[in-house]
Design a protein that fits this description.
globular, 468 residues, alpha+beta, single chain, 17 strands, 5-stranded mixed sheet, Gyrase A, domain 2, 39% helix, Nucleotidyltransferase, domain 5
Length: 468
C-alpha cells in the first residue's frame, strides 16, 4: 500500500512520520532521532540504522524532506506576467541583486500569491544556498533514502492549515509549538504568505507582532482573525490567553496532534512525541495532504541525474526486449543448414550492436556519476576566499576579485611594498588550488595615503577533481 513518508532535519534532530492509505489515511510510524553533535557521516549512519530497525522500505512511498525555515531566504517580488515559465526566467535575471549569493550558488522555487488585472503577479520566492541543499540531499542519499521533494517547514504548516474545517476566506495563522522553537506561518486557503521561526525563550507576543507587521513588500491583504495553535502535548492555553489579550477579536483554536491524527491499529506514539512534546505539525501537513508541496528545493543537478537515470533504464529494458525478439525470430528461422547460417550471421550482428549499445550506456552512466560527483568537485567560494586570505601577505589590500566562466581568477590590489606582491604571486604558484599564475602588471599610483603599487594577478582555479 502506498505511503507518504516525511522526514524533517535540523541541527539536533531528525523527525519521521509515515502515513499510509488512500481514502482513509492513518499514521503507521512516527519517531524523532537525536543527532545532536554528530557530523554528516554519523547522521547518515544513524539514519540508516533507524531505517533498518524500523524495517522501512521506500519502493511504494513518496518521500519528502522538510528543512527549517531559518535555513532559507524568503523574498517577495512582482513581475509583469502571469505565465510561470516567464516568471521563473525573470527571477533568474533579477534575483542576484536581492540576495548575497550568485544565481548559480542557490536553488530557488516560488509560489504565485496574487495576480492583477493589468498582468502583474506577486510571488513569494524561497532561496536556499546550493551547498546547504546538496548537504541535506547527501545525508539522506548516503542513508539510501530516495528523495522525491525537498521543501521547508512553513509549507508543511500551510498544508496543515488547509486541512482544517471551516476556514475563513481571509488571512489566518498557524503556530507550531515545538520543544526547542516555535514557528508562525500566516496563510490563506490557496497560498502561504510569510513565516517566522522563533527560538525557545524569545518573547512570543513580540515576535507575533513583528510577524503581523504590515509594511513593505510583506504587507498582508487583510487582518489576521483566526489562529491555530498546534502542539503534541497540552501547552497552548497560556499562550492563547496572552494572544487574546493582545488582540481582542482574535479567534484561537487548539490542535492537539496526538489526538487529532488517526493512528493505525497497533501503532503507538513514541515517548519523545507523547510525553516530551516534540511536534510533528509540519510533517503531518505534508503527509496528510492530497497535493504535492508547491515549493521544491531539491538541487537541479540531482533532478537532472534522476531523469537521465530513468531514461537510460527505459532504453536498457527496450534493448533487452528487442534482443529477445530478435533471438526468438532467429530460432524460428533456424531450420536446416542454410537457415542456421543465417541465424549465426544475425546473432553475430546482434552481438556487435549490443556491444555498441553497451558502450553507449556505460558512457551515459559515467555522465550520471560525474553529475552526482559534482557535489565534491564544485567550486565553493567560501573555501576559495579562505585560501586567498591564507596566502595574502599582510601588506596587500585586495580591491577586486572576479571569476570568469572558464575558472579564471583575477585579483587586483594595492601594496606599499613591492616585495609583498612577489611573495603573494609565489604563494599562489605554490598553492594546489591555482595554476597558470601570471602577474599582469604593476603600476605606481598616488593615493591619499601616498604612493602605492597597483597590481593585477590572474590564474586558473583548479577544481577538486583536478587537484586529486
Amino acid at each position: 500500500m502506498q505511503s507518504n513518508v516525511v522526514f524533517s532535519i535540523s541541527e539536533g534532530m531528525i523527525k519521521f512520520l509515515q502515513v499510509t492509505g488512500a481514502q482513509k489515511k492513518v499514521v503507521t510510524g512516527a519517531d524523532a532521532i537525536n543527532i545532536s553533535g554528530q557530523n554528516d557521516l554519523d547522521i547518515s549512519l544513524t539514519l540508516s540504522d533507524f531505517i533498518k530497525n524500523a524495517k522501512l522500505t521506500f519502493t511504494e512511498s513518496r518521500v519528502t524532506i522538510l528543512i527549517p525555515r531559518s535555513r532559507v531566504i524568503l523574498r517577495y517580488m512582482a513581475f509583469p506576467s502571469h505565465d510561470e515559465k516567464e516568471i521563473r526566467s525573470m527571477i533568474d535575471l533579477q534575483l542576484g541583486s536581492h540576495i548575497p549569493y550568485a544565481r548559480e550558488e542557490v536553488e530557488i522555487d516560488f509560489q504565485v500569491l496574487s495576480k492583477t488585472e493589468d498582468g502583474y503577479a506577486k510571488v513569494a520566492i524561497v532561496i536556499i544556498p546550493q551547498s546547504i541543499a546538496m548537504r541535506y540531499w547527501k545525508i539522506f542519499s548516503d542513508a539510501k533514502v530516495p528523495i522525491n521533494t525537498m521543501t521547508i517547514s512553513s509549507v508543511g504548516l500551510w498544508l496543515l492549515y488547509q486541512q482544517q474545517p471551516d476556514l475563513s476566506e481571509g488571512v489566518g495563522g498557524i503556530v507550531d509549538l515545538d520543544t526547542d522553537h516555535s514557528e508562525i506561518c500566516l496563510c490563506c486557503k490557496t497560498y502561504w504568505l510569510k513565516s517566522r521561526e522563533i527560538p525557545m525563550g524569545s518573547e512570543f507576543i513580540k515576535q507575533w507582532e513583528l510577524t503581523l507587521d504590515n509594511t513593505g513588500q510583506e504587507k498582508l491583504p487583510a487582518p489576521v482573525k483566526q489562529v491555530y495553535l498546534v502542539s503534541s502535548v497540552e501547552r497552548s492555553s497560556l499562550l492563547g490567553t496572552e494572544m487574546a489579550k493582545a488582540q481582542g477579536d482574535l479567534k484561537i483554536k487548539d490542535i492537539l496532534l496526538t489526538q487529532a491524527l488517526p493512528l493505525a491499529r497497533g501503532a503507538l506514539w513514541p515517548e519523545v512525541i507523547m510525553k516530551n512534546g516534540v511536534s510533528i505539525a509540519a510533517l503531518a501537513g505534508v503527509a496528510f495532504s492530497t497535493q504535492t508541496p508547491p515549493i521544491d528545493l531539491l538541487p537541479q543537478a540531482v533532478k537532472q541525474a534522476s531523469q537521465r537515470s530513468v531514461h537510460q533504464r527505459q532504453m536498457i529494458i527496450l534493448g533487452v526486449w528487442i534482443m529477445a525478439a530478435l533471438i526468438s525470430l532467429s530460432m524460428v528461422l533456424g531450420v536446416g543448414f542454410f537457415k542456421k547460417n543465417i541465424r549465426l550471421a544475425r546473432l553475430k550482428q546482434e552481438y556487435h550492436e549490443a556491444k555498441l549499445e553497451a558502450s553507449v550506456v556505460e558512457r551515459q552512466w559515467q555522465k550520471i556519476a560525474d553529475i552526482e560527483g559534482m557535489f565534491k568537485g564544485r567550486l565553493i567560494f567560501s573555501d576559495l576566499a579562505r585560501e586567498i586570505g591564507r596566502l595574502q601577505p599582510a601588506g596587500i589590500a585586495l580591491v577586486s576579485i572576479t571569476i570568469s566562466d572558464s575558472d579564471t581568477l583575477s585579483l587586483q590590489g594595492t601594496s606599499i611594498n613591492p616585495g609583498d606582491i612577489n611573495q603573494f604571486q609565489k604563494a599562489l604558484v605554490d598553492s594546489v588550488r591555482f595554476s597558470n599564475v601570471n602577474l599582469d602588471y604593476v603600476n605606481k599610483r598616488l593615493t591619499q595615503q601616498g604612493e602605492v603599487d597597483y597590481f593585477k594577478i590572474t590564474c586558473t582555479i583548479r577544481s577538486v577533481s583536478r587537484e586529486k
